[in-house]
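User: Can you help me understand a structure? I only have the sequence.
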Amino acid sequence: MGGLLMLNSILSSPRVTVLEQALSASSLRQKVISNNISNVNTPGYKKSEVLFEDMLQNAMTGDKLPMLQTNPRHLPLQAAGIPTAKTQVNGNTSIRTDGNNVDIDVEMADLAKNSIYYNAVVQQLSSYFSTIKSAIKEGR
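Assistant: Let's start by predicting it. Here is the structure, written out as tokens:
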């Protein structure tokens, strides 16, 4: 029973939770950018954006430190403040006369940036679990 509790603790560590949310945000961003690109010629279409990194930064630098209840006998605490990704429609701008505000060059650059971001997050998760695997095997 203790091993299961320890495994659950390893898999639900704050680092894993943040990286999991970052992967989720990147996946959502991929869908949103693809949707923006597919609507580049749709009159009146307003592009959408994914908000995550700024919310995460605010959560990490805020006045309140995220805390977790590590033992059922501890007093209950507020949930850790790790945000989830949200989409937002950018309806304030219009770069064309038909009301569409999708710039294909910006979207393609964002797509490449998101791909690099996704790969970096996957690399961090892989490194974390490799370290745990090494510790389980006692460095062998």
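Now, to help you interpret it: The helical segments are 2-11, 14-38, 53-61, 104-136. The first helix runs from residue 2 to 11. Let me know which part you'd like to focus on.
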